[in-house]
Structure formats: structure tokens, C-alpha cells
Amino acid sequence: MIDTHCHLDASRFDPDRDSVVTRAWAAGLHGILIPAVGPETWEPLLELPRKDARIQVGLGIHPQFLPDLRPEDDGEHLERLDALLGQGGAVAVGECGLDGPTLPGAPLERQLAVLRGHLALARKHGLPVLMHCHRLHPAMMELLKEEAWPEAGILMHSYSGGAELARFYIQKGCHFSFAGPVTWAEARKPLDALRVIPADRLVAETDSPDQAPTPFRGQRSEPGYLPHILAGMAHVLGEPVEVLAQRTTENARRLFREAFPSPSR
């Protein structure tokens, strides 16, 4: 099992991060992918895979972080990101994307410009994109119709849209990751989407420390909860959880170019 989106560097893990990681391996995980949210985290994150290959990282600027950065510095940040990606050590570009609730602090024009910069870097460095899209799917769809496609692909992280929206992203070649909400009692749209996604485009995540699955909903999530998410996904798909766990692990290793050690190693 590979947690394809876990903010293990978040401050909420400061008191017990080592224990969280220990619990993750004990729960059967073989890998954890940590996506950056802002420039100040890039260098510290790059140190982690050097210590443990089971932990890999993505580098990018989360749209929710843009209000904390000066717009006039966006170009400089993207240039620095380009340089770091060129040095190796990151397996993805992101987390990046579009965020509706952040529009008052970061207008859509700026969000789109920064995202285009990320997509260009993904194409240049041959890396997949960890894509965030919240309440701005129409703008995202228009962008993806216009932009050249990153050869390594795009992963729609913590997908929460319905089946019809998913069909557009499927046609564009996206991969999809699901988090704790697939286990919530009121979940409807993501479950409908889950049923139409091709088997080879599906992976799983916890989005820790957020979106904890049932029975931990409302608490801090952590990567060791991934089996609960996979169980929820398997229930929706009507297949054994062991089969889904193996397939999503293989899909994740292929998407991230075999960066994660094989479970057999």
C-alpha cells in the first residue's frame, strides 16, 4: 500500500511524527508521498527520501498558500522550483492547482498563471502532477483543454467530483486518488465516480492530517489509516480489499516511475 498524498511535514505531526511513521509501516504501507505546499518546505522535504526511500516527495505551491506569497515573487519561486526539480530527488510536481475559497486572496488569473508554470515544469522534467481542484472545476477543465499535456500524467488528488466530471478527466488521461470521504456515510458523488474510473488509473491516499476516514472522522488523520480507505473503496467496487490494495500499489509505483521500493525488497 502506498499513501500517495500525506502532509507528514504538517505541524500537527510535530509531537509524534516518528511514531506516526512507525504505525504506517506496521499497518502494511510500503510508501508515503509528501507533497509540498510552499517554497520554504522544498529543501527540507528533499532530505527525507535520502534517509528512507519509502518516503518520497513532490515539490510545488499549493493554491491556498498563494495569499501568503507576494504575487511579484511568483516567477522567482517557479525558477527556483525549476532548479530544484532539475537536481532530482522529487517524484512529482505539486501540490498545485486551483482553489475556489482562496479566490479573495489569490485571484483566478494568478492561480491559473502559477498552475501553468507548474504544468510547464512537469513537461520539462518528465514528472507527474499532484493536482488540487476545489470548487473550480470549470476553470480547470478549460485550462486542461488548452494546455499541452504532461507526458508523465496528472493525478487528481482526493477526488470528490461526480461521475460525469470524472469522465472528462478520464478522457484527458488523468489518474485519480481517493481519501477518507469515500468512507463517510453521506458520500455519494465520489462513490459514483469511483465506479467509472479505469482500474489502472486508481490510487489511494489519506490526505493526512485532514479528511480522516471512518471510524476516525473528526480526528487527525495519519497514513496508517490507509487500509480503512482501501476497504471503503473495495466495498464500493465489490472486490476483495487485498486485490485493490495490490492494484493501487502497482499503479502508484508505475505513476511515480518506480521511485518507491518494491514491497518484495
UniProtKB/TrEMBL annotation:
Q: Membrane spanning segments where?
A: none
Taxonomically, which superkingdom?
Bacteria
Query: What's a Pfam family this protein contains?
Result: TatD_DNase
Example GO molecular function:
hydrolase activity, acting on ester bonds
Binding-site list for a divalent metal cation 1: 5, 7, 95, 207
Keyword flag Metal-binding? yes
Keywords from UniProt, A to Z, are: Hydrolase, Metal-binding
- A single Gene Ontology CC term: cytosol
Identify the residues that bind a divalent metal cation 2.
132, 157
Q: Which SUPFAM superfamilies match?
A: Metallo-dependent hydrolases
**UniProt similarity note:** Belongs to the metallo-dependent hydrolases superfamily. TatD-type hydrolase family.
The identity of this protein, by name, is TatD family deoxyribonuclease
Q: Which organism does this record belong to?
A: Corallococcus aberystwythensis
